[in-house]
Amino acid sequence: DFLHALQHDIKPAFGSSKEELDIFLAQGILSWGEPVNRVLTDGDLVISQIKTSDQASLITMLLEGAPGTGKTALASKIAKSSDIPFMKLCTPENMIGYTETAKCQVIKKIFDDAYKSPMSCIIIDDIERLLDYVPVGPRFSNLVLQALLVLLKKNPPPGHKLLIIGTTSRKDVLQDFEMFPLFKTVAHVSAISTAQQLIMVLDSTGGFSDAELQSIAKKLTGARLFIGIKTLLSVIDLAKQMQAGERADKFVNLIEDLGAIDYTGNVCL
Amino acid sequence: DFLHALQHDIKPAFGSSKEELDIFLAQGILSWGEPVNRVLTDGDLVISQIKTSDQASLITMLLEGAPGTGKTALASKIAKSSDIPFMKLCTPENMIGYTETAKCQVIKKIFDDAYKSPMSCIIIDDIERLLDYVPVGPRFSNLVLQALLVLLKKNPPPGHKLLIIGTTSRKDVLQDFEMFPLFKTVAHVSAISTAQQLIMVLDSTGGFSDAELQSIAKKLTGARLFIGIKTLLSVIDLAKQMQAGERADKFVNLIEDLGAIDYTGNVCL
Amino acid sequence: DFLHALQHDIKPAFGSSKEELDIFLAQGILSWGEPVNRVLTDGDLVISQIKTSDQASLITMLLEGAPGTGKTALASKIAKSSDIPFMKLCTPENMIGYTETAKCQVIKKIFDDAYKSPMSCIIIDDIERLLDYVPVGPRFSNLVLQALLVLLKKNPPPGHKLLIIGTTSRKDVLQDFEMFPLFKTVAHVSAISTAQQLIMVLDSTGGFSDAELQSIAKKLTGARLFIGIKTLLSVIDLAKQMQAGERADKFVNLIEDLGAIDYTGNVCL
Amino acid sequence: DFLHALQHDIKPAFGSSKEELDIFLAQGILSWGEPVNRVLTDGDLVISQIKTSDQASLITMLLEGAPGTGKTALASKIAKSSDIPFMKLCTPENMIGYTETAKCQVIKKIFDDAYKSPMSCIIIDDIERLLDYVPVGPRFSNLVLQALLVLLKKNPPPGHKLLIIGTTSRKDVLQDFEMFPLFKTVAHVSAISTAQQLIMVLDSTGGFSDAELQSIAKKLTGARLFIGIKTLLSVIDLAKQMQAGERADKFVNLIEDLGAIDYTGNVCL
Amino acid sequence: DFLHALQHDIKPAFGSSKEELDIFLAQGILSWGEPVNRVLTDGDLVISQIKTSDQASLITMLLEGAPGTGKTALASKIAKSSDIPFMKLCTPENMIGYTETAKCQVIKKIFDDAYKSPMSCIIIDDIERLLDYVPVGPRFSNLVLQALLVLLKKNPPPGHKLLIIGTTSRKDVLQDFEMFPLFKTVAHVSAISTAQQLIMVLDSTGGFSDAELQSIAKKLTGARLFIGIKTLLSVIDLAKQMQAGERADKFVNLIEDLGAIDYTGNVCL
Amino acid sequence: DFLHALQHDIKPAFGSSKEELDIFLAQGILSWGEPVNRVLTDGDLVISQIKTSDQASLITMLLEGAPGTGKTALASKIAKSSDIPFMKLCTPENMIGYTETAKCQVIKKIFDDAYKSPMSCIIIDDIERLLDYVPVGPRFSNLVLQALLVLLKKNPPPGHKLLIIGTTSRKDVLQDFEMFPLFKTVAHVSAISTAQQLIMVLDSTGGFSDAELQSIAKKLTGARLFIGIKTLLSVIDLAKQMQAGERADKFVNLIEDLGAIDYTGNVCL
Ligand SMILES: Nc1ncnc2c1ncn2[C@@H]1O[C@H](COP(=O)(O)OP(=O)(O)OP(=O)(O)O)[C@@H](O)[C@H]1O
Ligand SMILES: Nc1ncnc2c1ncn2[C@@H]1O[C@H](COP(=O)(O)OP(=O)(O)OP(=O)(O)O)[C@@H](O)[C@H]1O
Ligand SMILES: Nc1ncnc2c1ncn2[C@@H]1O[C@H](COP(=O)(O)OP(=O)(O)OP(=O)(O)O)[C@@H](O)[C@H]1O
Ligand SMILES: Nc1ncnc2c1ncn2[C@@H]1O[C@H](COP(=O)(O)OP(=O)(O)OP(=O)(O)O)[C@@H](O)[C@H]1O
Ligand SMILES: Nc1ncnc2c1ncn2[C@@H]1O[C@H](COP(=O)(O)OP(=O)(O)OP(=O)(O)O)[C@@H](O)[C@H]1O
Ligand SMILES: Nc1ncnc2c1ncn2[C@@H]1O[C@H](COP(=O)(O)OP(=O)(O)OP(=O)(O)O)[C@@H](O)[C@H]1O
Ligand SMILES: [Mg+2]
Ligand SMILES: [Mg+2]
Ligand SMILES: [Mg+2]
Ligand SMILES: [Mg+2]
Ligand SMILES: [Mg+2]
Ligand SMILES: [Mg+2]
Q: What is the rounded distance in angstroms from the CA atom of residue A68 to the CA atom of residue A78?
């Protein structure tokens, strides 16, 4: 029955989350520019803090950025590089169709498990989804919200340390919910914004000839872009289905259709 | 009892959906014009992408257009022509009167089944209906919405591929729900808009004499139409009940009553 | 207990509805004017369509008009004259105090039964009541609404035909609910609007002397009326309790009190 | 337990309501003026209609007026004088703390019982209270409202007759709820509005000397009053506790405090 | 378990409430001025009415005033001085954390018990709290509200009498809820408003020397105060903790901090 | 199962809370300035009142201040220094994911236990969180709110005394909820506002050389700060991870990033 299925479904969430992180990292982290490094450096600082400090037993970090900019992958990368033995992923993917009570149970279980380990790391992925947030209304699960608001402040037992890494594409919503200030470190995950950065990605993924790359670079020179790495990788994949001759043009068309190019080159926001 | 009935009702939904697709295609796809081909071509591209790409394991496509323009039939056509072995239909027709929890269970089951197959295709038909959406309020099932928002982003397990084809006549609502950007390919399903296209349909369905066709064509020359193929086929059917002498006139009257003709011929919208 | 009672209450709804139709037709259909005929003619067309067409397997018709104008009686009349063997009445009278879930079950059962018959007819009476609609709020049962929105579009199985006749006095509400366009034929049920039509009714019901009829006719000459047949029959009945001498005057007073007479005779609306 | 208690509590409601009516009539009906007679005459007409008419099987009447004007007593009086054998009282007093589902059950039971009798009368007292209506919000029980909206239109079985008498002090609310037009006869229950009417009541109840009556009459000459009979009887009762010497003055003071006197004597409303 | 606990918790509420009244009266009633007497006189009148009148079987009285002005104590005083044998206290203190259904049960039980006694008195303390009222929203329990609206109008059985004394600090809310007019007698419980009244209280409670009293009186001469007796007693208690030398000054400071002094001495409100 | 877990989870909350207080005090109370002393003095007064007064049996105190200003630590400090034997902590940390009913049960149990002891102290920490408050909506648990509104007024049984210490960072919300006036003593917990106070904290925590302290002091001279002690300690901890050379500068940068420095030195609020 359903309850049985629920138990069954929950189980994997209580095992090690290491493999799950690997899935999010399957396509790797491309070093397309300075913004990527900045996030990783912030991650390093936070990891060093939790490892060496005597005082701080609870460290919280938020990765925020537009949809598809690579937040989940970067959070996984940071968590993985920390080598903290107890590692848990708290993601809406494992709670589809759960009632808010069931969600709270799962979340609480993850934290209770973490409190038992001397040093733990929890990734809370896609917070607005975990909250069942939708701007129409707006509606959201206050039960889950209140649970997170408490958990993000609650110290682990004496002698234990906990690193919490959250991700969101709705920083504004977290501010409305008064959750934002509970993250003591906040790193902005940027979209790709220059032709140079884009070419660096195309170069890494392969599949475009040098001539094509040059043609694309020329078209985009001076233009201002705004496209997340996840979206970009998906567009590249689609473009690869096209014939060699028209691939470069089609590729530029596709990202134009997404409204991701501003040819004026003047950023006025 | 009801629970028993529920189990029973759900069952067919978990079998193969191939026959269900055939029902939606019973009246065939008439090639009444360029817009029809464009949608089918987009479908081909998406199918080729899921079949050949190494990277993309989750492909999402949306068919959006006014009510009765043929979205469900076209989605069925594309899915069928893909020859993907695991094919599932997620439609509100199979969930009448279900609670939102029951709906989520069914939807989750469909996806869980799909994840087990190396290559699968899921049609999510009539998304606004699946969400129990009504503009008064507005009201909708947030539980189902959140489930879809997660499922439309969640990658199938490594080595598995999934194609999701959604249909909706409320593109604006999907935008408000922040679901729209999760569809990486969007195809617009058009209404019939010229007399020529309409005559092409009348010609295919038969039942009108050449003289009648010419009379209709003359009346509509230069007029701007806006009528979905489904509505048009139903009007044609009604007109066939009428006497031969008055059929052509009555037919034009009927589509006039629907507000589907703009005689100015000037499209200002 | 209650559940037992529920089962018991539901039962009659699953038997034949023929006798129920007769109750609605107990007072007969008076041919008080052209508007009555128009509705009946539209009904004939729809019946001929479902009987002869090869294409259309689902035919939907809506009778809409002000409260008390005779919608339920006319729908019953059309359904009865169709001679379709499987005939079902889906009316709020059989679902008093039901939860929305129970309502959905009953409605679904009616449709599932109909799908089993090669040709069926379902009357959905008083749709706004079935939806538990009230303008304060507004409030309504979204569960029932969504069920109807799907059922009004869902084709019966191949080889089966279904005629759905709905009635409502809130056309505007059905438009807000996006249910209106799902009815492919819409017939307006009119109120009595001229003295002549009213006299025709008085004449048929009897109980007024010729002198009284002439006196009434004189008073109302040139006036614009707006009174439904059901209300009119009830007022006639009340007037009959009065003494012969004052009956004609009192009758005119009663319909004046209802605000149903506009003596200016100029219709500006 | 509670369910047991519920059963127990409901029981009396299903017995005869004759004695209950007597309770409401314990203080009798004082003939303080024309408005009282008008209501009773309307009641007589309705009773004669249900007794003699062949056509009308459902007669509905509403008594509406400000709080404390005697609606419940007058409804009881009319019902009692009809001598209809089956008589039921549907009053919120018997449903305190019931859920809306329980209320609907009770109401439905009352009507189902009535349908079994060839001629029945149901008093629906204090409709706004039965609906759990409160203007803050506003909030109300839509389940009960919808049940009443259907029951006030539903004909009893062929050969049966039913008289429904409702009372309310919120005519406006019933209009918002589209329930008002379902009452085919509406009688307004007036407050006492002249000094003469008031003196008539004081005279009937006794306890004031002639001198006191004259003193009161003099003070109030020409003033416009607005005080329900129930409130008035309660004030008289309180005044009787006072000493003979000051009784007349205190009595006038008490109704002044209620804001029930307008000394200008000019009615501008 | 909880239900067991509930039963257990409820029990005391069904015993005699005499001792509970004594708790509310532990600090006694100080005769600090005319307003106190007025309330007690109104109480006497109401008690005499219920004891002697033949007519009135239901007497309702409301004590309303700002928070901490002594409403609960005065209601207890009046009830106690009536010597009515059956005495019940309906207070939110006995229903903490109850669902609205449980509250209704308790309230109904209190009234049902009272109806069995020939003469009873029920104190409904802190009505806005009983209703779970909060101005944000506003939110409140409509189930409890509707129960009270009916119970405040419902006559006890023939031959029985019932006195209901309510207290509230939100007269405005009771008006919005249309509950206010159901109280036939309303007494306003005043705050202390002059220096003289305050000194009278200080004098009664003791602990201040004559010099201190004179010093306080001098400071406050001509000032307008607004402080409830409950608040005042608590401030006096706090001041007593201070050293003799600075007590008088600190005391005045404390009530200044409460915003309870208006030195202009001109009341413009 | 869950219920079992619930029982289990609740248990510790019913034991002694002394150890829990120690956790909140692990980092001690630094005497960084006059505002700290003021709160502690207010605490002393309240403790002396509950210990010596004959009258007051219920004493309520609120610590309010911006997030991270040390409210919980100061409340723990005051409670601990009182040496009251029965000490309970009512904190959202022990009720994560509880339904509002479960929360009320826990809270009620804490108070019922306290009433049994002759002298008790209850800390209600983070009241807005206990109420599940979120400004979006706003939403909150009215059940918990109403329980607290009653408990904050309810006297313990005769001969028993109770001290309640609440903390909140949303004084405004408590005012909207009409809970604020129920706290008879209110102490404001201040943020650090001058460079001098900040240096005093840095000095106490150690880890900065005298040169660094001087450099920081110089930079901040005359500037207006606004930073809670909790936030400050966390920033200090982070700064300690940095290299000695750049530590002072980075530290000032970090608090600048928090928007906690106003260099104009003019407080205009
Ligand atoms: N420099 C990079 N940073 C982040 N992701 C990268 C980078 N280079 C490549 N990737 C790949 O890009 C994808 C980023 O997707 P990811 O799901 O992390 O984005 P996201 O911001 O979490 O998206 P969403 O907003 O939908 O949650 C991953 O497949 C990741 O392997
Ligand atoms: N070119 C065409 N494209 C789509 N449908 C076609 C075409 N030619 C004929 N049809 C027929 O038209 C009908 C289209 O109905 P369909 O249910 O697909 O429309 P829809 O847009 O999904 O309607 P709705 O908005 O009500 O869901 C089908 O019966 C289909 O067989
Ligand atoms: N020409 C007519 N058309 C419809 N009804 C007629 C006609 N002549 C007589 N009647 C009688 O008038 C009554 C119409 O009542 P009916 O319940 O059908 O009205 P309705 O519009 O459905 O009312 P409501 O809006 O309350 O649902 C029936 O008793 C019917 O027998
Ligand atoms: N002429 C009269 N009409 C009505 N009631 C009268 C009359 N004379 C005396 N009474 C007495 O006045 C009282 C009227 O109270 P009743 O409960 O009927 O008023 P109501 O309008 O129903 O009040 P509410 O608005 O509170 O429901 C009854 O006790 C009735 O016996
Ligand atoms: N003249 C007086 N009137 C009322 N109470 C008095 C008087 N003199 C002394 N007291 C004492 O003052 C206190 C009044 O508190 P009480 O709880 O009755 O106030 P309240 O108005 O009900 O407060 P709340 O608004 O919080 O419910 C009691 O302890 C009572 O014994
Ligand atoms: N003077 C002080 N006052 C308060 N806390 C201090 C002081 N000096 C050091 N501390 C430490 O500062 C921290 C204050 O954190 P605490 O949780 O009490 O803040 P808070 O105001 O309750 O925060 P929040 O608003 O998040 O609930 C504690 O670790 C405490 O030991
Ligand atoms: Mg992500
Ligand atoms: Mg479709
Ligand atoms: Mg009808
Ligand atoms: Mg009444
Ligand atoms: Mg009180
Ligand atoms: Mg705190």
A: 18
Which chains reach chain D with 3 or more Cβ–Cβ distances below 8 angstroms? C, E
Return d(Cα C81, Cα C75) in angstroms, integer.
Answer: 10
Q: How confident is the model at residue D16 (pLDDT cuts 50, 70, 90)?
A: low
List, in order, residues 6 or more apart from F211 with CB less than 8 Å away. Answer: F248
- Which pLDDT score, from 0 to 100, does residue F125 have? 98
Contacting chains of C (3 CB pairs or more, <8 Å) are B, D
Residues 6 or more apart in contact with residue A31 via CB below 8 angstroms: A37, A200
Of D131-145, F109-123, F234-248, the least confident: F234-248
| Rounded (5°) CA angle E115-E117-E120 | 80
Which pLDDT value is given to residue B268? 38
Reported confidence tier of residue B225, pLDDT bands at 50, 70, 90: very high
| pLDDT (0 to 100) of residue F22 | 86
Residue type, C132: D
Rounded distance, CA A236 to CA F86, Å?
67
- Of all protein residues, the one whose alpha carbon is nearest to atom 10 of ligand 4 is D29
Q: Mutate which of F107, F134, F150 to test chain E, going by most E C-beta atoms within 10 A?
A: F150
Hey, are the CB atoms on A234 and B52 less than 8 Å from each other?
Answer: no
Q: For residues D29 and D77, is the Cβ–Cβ distance under 8 A?
A: yes
Output phi, psi for E187, to 5 deg: -115, 135
Any ligand 6 atom below 6 A from CB of F34: no
pLDDT, position D151 = 98
pTM over 0.80: yes
Mind listing the pLDDT tens digit for each residue in D85-115?
Answer: 899 999 999 999 999 999 999 999 999 999 9
Q: Is E27 exposed, middle or buried (0-12, 13-18, 19+ CB in 10 A)?
A: middle
pLDDT confidence bin for E16, thresholds 50/70/90: low
pLDDT confidence of residue A26? 85
What lies within 8 Å, CB to CB, of E198 at 6+ separation is E32, E192, E216, E220, E225, E227, E232
Residue F214: partners with Cβ closer than 8 Å, 6 or more residues away = none
Question: Any residues with CB less than 8 A from the CB of C22 and at least 6 apart, and which?
Answer: none
DSSP string for residues in chain A: -HHHHHHHHHHHHHS--HHHHHHHTTT-----SHHHHHHHHHHHHHHHHHHH-SS--EEEEEEE-STTSSHHHHHHHHHHHHT-SEEEEE-GGG-TT--HHHHHHHHHHHHHHHHHSSEEEEEE--HHHHTT-BTTTTB--HHHHHHHHHHTTPPPSTT-EEEEEEEES-HHHHHHTT-GGG-SEEEEPPPB-SHHHHHHHHHHH--S-HHHHHHHHHHHTT-EE-B-HHHHHHHHHHHHTS-HHHHHHHHHHHHHHTT-EETT-----
Mutate to test the interface with C, among D176, D178, D186 (most CBs of C within 10 A): D178
Q: Give the C-alpha distances (Å, rounded to integers) separating A249 from A244, D71, D124.
A: 10, 82, 76
Give me the mean pLDDT over the C88-116 stretch.
95
Taking all residues of chain D, what is their mean pLDDT, rounded to a whole number? 89
Minimal-distance CA residue to ligand 2 atom 9: B29
For ligand 1, is residue A91 a contact (CB within 6 Å)? no
User: Which atom of ligand 4 sits closest to the CA of residue D228?
Assistant: 21
Q: d(Cα C73, Cα C187) in Å, to the nearest integer?
A: 14
Q: Give, in order, the Cα–Cα distances in Å from A224 to each of A258, C62, F257.
A: 13, 55, 28
pLDDT of residue D56: 79
ipTM for the predicted complex? 0.91
Task: Return the pLDDT at E267.
Answer: 42
User: Would you call B27 an interface residue with chain C, using a CB distance cutoff of 8 Å?
Assistant: yes
Closest CA to F97 of A111, A88, E40: A111
Ranges of residues in chain A whose predicted pLDDT is under 70: 1-16, 265-269
